[in-house]
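Please decode residue identities from the backbone states below.
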């Protein structure tokens, strides 16, 4: 063992001894992720709020198995055909290289990238894509998102090993942007392709898919109800094709508990990033004061990144009197959004009057509805107008509570996920405001599977929730209100934001359907339909816009740097989206350049000697190295050095080539040829000696003899070298 390794081990042993004593003295509790010790400077730790009662169930298509995002599954294990970057507007090819539509937009052909392998070494091909879609079509609507697939897709055909053709039921020039029906990630996640060789013959309603096999850069090391540990794969297809490896050797997704514990761990540098809603602004500011390495998207107010899922108060359109548009309008007038933002969000967001996130890409659309916003006042706080509406409907106040004309009190059951701190804070404010406006509100708190079932089945009068876009395109949020998504009360919809509020308006549906078949390139027509849809929305107000969505995502730069932020917005900062993969590892641009990725704050370097031709690669320091030829030496990050040495492409020791020795026969022949020359040289030397002996003084015969003999040796050596060459 060399000196620096021994020294390092001694240091670690000493530190561990001190740490043990301190932990015993102060009773410090650290996460017991495994018996194995993960070097902190090689481990990225993500805090999440989820608990998984069956952590070995990675079947993300079975309802009730838990989120794919909290445990890191769709960020690290699974990959998608394409990713979207909302900050740059890029649509990033990943498992697929490109797609093309037929002229009538009823077919879309996807060209897969060659050379991709599953984590068990099997090739990723068109067979996997076709198998996944056939499975979803066969088991619709029992599997998550399978009904959405069945709504759009009639069949999927393998053209060849790397080409797949989708046959759509209706023309849809935006099919590639529908996360619930296509294997792309415009927002959060998308249809996940399954390995046919693993799933074939399995019951998709009971198969747990553990350990999960994916094409992503990490594999599962261990799982528990609150902790998921992943280790980097050295055989990731991106590494082989692009020369890129993610810098963290290990990534841990862990539920640390309540907010105060998350804050404490951030201060202690035990957490590198946390999911949305885990810290209030007050907690974040306290953490940042004690640990200057912790930051958010903005360095100053409003701090938070703008999440693409605006917040709403959902109103159950299938229940009287909430089924009346006038009642929903009155409720909207009772909401003081400024107070809501000040109290529940601590000033980290802004009021919202639209269905869409307030991104610059929507500006032409928002400009087209400015007059509608002024006319319908969808975000105005005006209790007097609410009172006027109730009176116009024949409602009367009895003991401070509005009653309907038949004498029924205006009683509202407000459903809230008690496991979501943001929604609980919002509910507290809204309940007070609605009560002040004369509505008898009772708060019903559920969490986990119970909340999921109730929210989808419509077992509520009101619910605070969000609508997420299916794409960076106006259709996504408008389509969420389409009646095709809804179900009779008691039957679960596919997702809470897909018309769990039971809104039905055929005129609105027709406009959305026309927008769906209008190519995004025809922006003028798209804006016209957008305006028509919004006018109906504002008249009916099936859901009530409250605020834009703040995403206060704490980022700790003590161990890892290079995170995107407002000063360098190269990507979204969110660790719960599938696009977190492109934050950790970066992504290729259309020009083939690799953008972004995170890197260790401190990088150790060492010198390696390449033993084979080695392609160009990006080190964990995000610096490009190579290409190299056998014999080249380079100082590179130690992590990368270990990778190339392990692959047999490099060595820590210099390569010394042994001299080429001629065969003995050749040597003998050379010596024989030179012997006569040496004899002649000897006689010349004797002659010179005699001449020198006659010289008086100056130099001795012995000295001259030595010099001349040396010359003879040099001549002999030169001759041998010439023969060798």
């Amino acid at each position: 063992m060399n000196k620096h390794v021994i020294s390092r081990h001694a240091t670690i042993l000493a530190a561990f001894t001190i740490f043990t004593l301190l932990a015993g003295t102060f009773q410090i509790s650290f996460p017991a992720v495994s018996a194995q010790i993960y070097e902190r400077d090689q481990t990225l730790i993500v805090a999440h709020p989820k608990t998984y009662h069956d952590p070995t169930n990675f079947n993300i298509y079975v309802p009730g198995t838990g989120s794919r995002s909290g445990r890191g599954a769709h960020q690290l294990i699974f990959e998608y055909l394409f990713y979207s970057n909302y900050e740059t507007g890029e649509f990033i090819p990943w498992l697929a290289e490109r797609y093309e539509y037929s002229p009538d937009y009823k077919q879309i052909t996807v060209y897969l990238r060659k050379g991709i392998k599953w984590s068990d070494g099997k090739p990723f091909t068109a067979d996997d894509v076709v198998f996944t879609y056939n499975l979803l079509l066969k088991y619709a609507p029992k599997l998550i998102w399978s009904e959405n697939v069945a709504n759009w897709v009639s069949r999927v055909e393998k053209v060849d090993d790397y080409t797949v053709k989708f046959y759509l039921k209706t023309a849809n020039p935006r099919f590639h942007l529908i996360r619930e029906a296509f294997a792309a990630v415009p927002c959060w996640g998308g249809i996940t392709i399954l390995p046919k060789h693993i799933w074939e013959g399995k019951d998709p309603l009971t198969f747990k898919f553990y350990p999960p096999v994916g094409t992503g850069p990490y594999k599962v090391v261990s799982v528990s109800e609150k902790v998921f540990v992943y280790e980097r794969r050295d055989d990731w297809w991106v590494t082989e094709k692009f020369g890129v490896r993610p810098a963290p050797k290990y990534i841990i997704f862990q539920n640390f508990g309540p907010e105060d514990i998350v804050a404490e761990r951030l201060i202690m540098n035990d957490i590198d990033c946390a999911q949305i809603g885990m810290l209030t602004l007050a907690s974040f500011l306290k953490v940042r004061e004690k640990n200057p390495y912790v930051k958010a998207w903005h360095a100053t107010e409003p701090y938070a990144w703008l999440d693409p899922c605006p917040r709403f108060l959902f109103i159950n359109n299938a229940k009287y009197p909430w089924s009346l548009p006038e009642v929903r309008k009155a409720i909207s007038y009772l909401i003081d959004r400024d107070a809501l933002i000040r109290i529940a969000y601590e000033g980290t967001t802004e009021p919202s009057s639209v269905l869409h996130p307030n991104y610059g890409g929507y500006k032409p659309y928002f400009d087209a509805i400015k007059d509608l916003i002024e006319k319908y006042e969808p975000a105005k706080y005006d209790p007097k107008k609410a009172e006027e509406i109730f009176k116009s409907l024949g409602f009367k106040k009895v003991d401070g509570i509005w009653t309907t004309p038949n004498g029924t009190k205006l009683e509202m059951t407000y459903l809230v996920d008690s496991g979501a701190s943001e929604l609980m804070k919002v509910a507290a404010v809204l309940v007070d405001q609605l009560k002040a406006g004369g509505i008898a509100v009772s708060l019903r708190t559920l969490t986990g599977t119970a909340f999921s079932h109730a929210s989808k089945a419509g077992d509520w009068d009101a619910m605070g929730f969000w609508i997420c876009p299916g794409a960076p395109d106006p259709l996504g949020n408008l389509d969420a209100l389409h009646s095709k998504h809804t179900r009779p009360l008691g039957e679960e919809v596919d997702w809470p934001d897909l018309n769990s509020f039971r809104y039905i308006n055929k005129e609105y549906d027709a406009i959305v359907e026309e927008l769906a078949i209008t190519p995004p390139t025809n922006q003028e027509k798209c804006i016209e339909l957008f305006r028509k849809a919004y006018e109906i929305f504002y008249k009916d107000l099936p859901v009530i816009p409250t605020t834009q969505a703040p995403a206060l995502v704490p980022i700790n730069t003590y161990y890892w740097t290079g995170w995107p932020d407002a000063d360098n917005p190269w990507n979204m900062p969110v660790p719960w989206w599938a696009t977190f993969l492109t934050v950790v590892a970066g992504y290729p641009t259309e020009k083939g350049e690799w953008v972004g990725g995170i890197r260790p704050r401190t990088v150790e370097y060492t010198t390696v000697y390449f033993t084979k031709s080695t392609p160009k690669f990006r080190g964990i320091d995000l610096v490009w190295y190579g290409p190299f030829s056998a014999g080249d030496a380079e100082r590179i990050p130690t992590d990368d050095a270990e990778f190339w040495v392990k692959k047999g492409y490099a060595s820590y020791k210099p390569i010394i080539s042994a001299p080429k020795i001629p065969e003995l026969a050749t040597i003998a022949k050379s010596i024989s040829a030179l012997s006569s020359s040496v004899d002649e040289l000897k006689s010349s030397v004797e002659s010179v000696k005699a001449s020198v002996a006659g010289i008086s003084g100056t130099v001795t015969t012995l000295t001259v003899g030595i010099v001349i003999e040396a010359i003879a040796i040099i001549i002999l050596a030169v001759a041998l070298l010439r023969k060798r060459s």
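Observation: The CA atoms of residues 195 and 562 lie 33 Å apart.
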